[in-house]
Write a structure and sequence with these properties.
3 domains, Alpha-Beta Plaits, 16 strands, 13 helices, seven-stranded parallel beta sheet, Rossmann fold, alpha/beta, five-stranded parallel beta sheet
Length: 385
């Protein structure tokens, strides 16, 4: 029996994935795994029983990754599950930043009298805005969302520039060949009329849109941020808006000073707020947890390497260990010394951590597990039968 704790309300599409051999709910004690959406886990005590955390979404800023890695807890996310929902909101923002639709609607709400039509014809010129057709859009980050945005914008007649130094093979296959390759961020800053950012927030990307970057941008550029608030320096953005350097800023993560500010479209984090997206994220997160708990396979982890292989033998030993030389040899020696035969194995590393799966024949006792855990390099060992 596996125990799954929910820290937020999880879509039934995800909870339905767990069968009779699972105990699930918000009040589950000593969980084997946790499913979470937005709840912060940074101050939360992580029980010794905890093997994995699945974030039903892409961002993992609410999870203490370093702490989890040190304790041998695998953290999963669901890349691409909410991609279409975010893409649609970004397209909406493209139009809203161009055509002054929201100010026009708010102005209309205040009209009174029998000559409303006349007032509209007289006052509509204050809400003139450009079309996006033929304009240049810079897409920073060509993951699941960025590729969808780039392709959709291209189909709307925009000239699209894409920048991603870490473009994956899968994303490259899905990207329109008409999207132009930007060799540097400066190519985006200097050439584009619209800029949308779709990268994770890391120490390297934090506040990557700042005064220095904005100085290089075209006069009157429109900027969209539906990735993470910390990617943009809020003070620098407000100054650029006041000076007119940036015509409009649309964000799903508005800073306090942006609420009600002119030329800011502050969206209350609606990127993945669709029933379809919530279902997709929950289903994907649940299946990732099941595959790890039941088979030891790791897919879409943000802190551990991806390792997956079909089952062979009578049991499976899973080792989370430090990425140092000779660790696998030591582990294999321990296993062989107990009369256990290794049928198949796979091991991969990710920075200072590594994960090894050993499919074995023979009885794997608790003594064998304890022997593996006694290795200085091993963080966690478990057996799946």
């Amino acid at each position: 029996m596996y125990k799954i704790q929910y820290l937020n309300k999880i879509s039934p599409a995800g909870t339905a994935c767990f069968g009779d051999n699972y105990e699930t709910g918000e009040n589950v004690q000593t969980p084997d795994a946790i499913m979470v959406r937005s709840a912060s886990m940074h101050e939360r005590e992580l029980p010794e029983t905890l093997l994995a955390i699945a974030r039903a979404g892409a961002g993992v800023n609410n999870i203490p990754l370093d702490k989890c890695s040190e304790k041998g807890i695998v953290v999963f996310n669901t890349p691409g599950a909410n991609a279409n929902a975010v893409k649609e909101l970004v397209l909406c923002a493209l139009f809203l930043t161009s055509r002054k639709i929201i100010p026009g609607i708010e102005w209309c709400k205040k009209l009174t009298g029998a000559d409303v039509a006349k007032q509209i014809e007289k006052g509509k010129s204050q809400f003139v805005g450009p079309e996006i057709f033929g304009k240049k859009l810079g897409v920073i980050g060509l993951g699941a969302i960025g590729v969808l945005v780039a392709n959709a914008a291209k189909s709307l007649g925009m000239e699209v520039y894409g920048y991603d130094p870490f473009l994956s093979v899968d994303s490259a296959w899905g990207l329109s060949r008409s999207v132009k390759h930007a060799h540097s961020l400066d190519d985006i800053w200097e050439n584009c009329d619209y800029i949308t950012i779709h990268v994770p927030q890391t120490p390297d990307t934090k506040e990557m849109i700042n005064a220095e970057a904005m100085d290089k941008m075209k006069q009157g550029v429109r900027v969209l941020n539906f990735a993470r608030g910390g990617l943009v320096n809020s003070d620098d953005m407000m100054q650029a808006l006041h000076s007119g350097k940036i015509s409009a800023y649309a964000t799903d993560f508005p800073a306090p000073e942006m609420i009600g500010a002119e030329n800011v479209i502050a969206v209350p984090h609606l990127g993945a707020s669709t029933p379809e997206s919530e279902d997709n994220c929950a289903r994907m997160a649940a299946n990732e947890l099941k595959d790890y708990l039941e088979n030891g396979n790791i897919r879409h982890s943000v802190n551990m390497p991806a390792v997956s292989m079909p089952r062979a033998g009578s049991g499976r030993i899973c080792l989370l260990h430090r990425n140092v030389p000779n660790t696998i040899s030591k582990a294999a020696g321990k296993v062989a010394g107990m009369g256990i035969n290794i049928e198949n194995m796979q091991s991969k590393s990710r920075k200072e951590y590594a994960y090894t799966i050993l499919d074995v024949t023979g009885v794997v006792t608790q003594q064998a597990v304890d022997g593996l855990c006694s290795l200085e390099e091993v963080i966690r060992a478990r057996v799946i039968r």
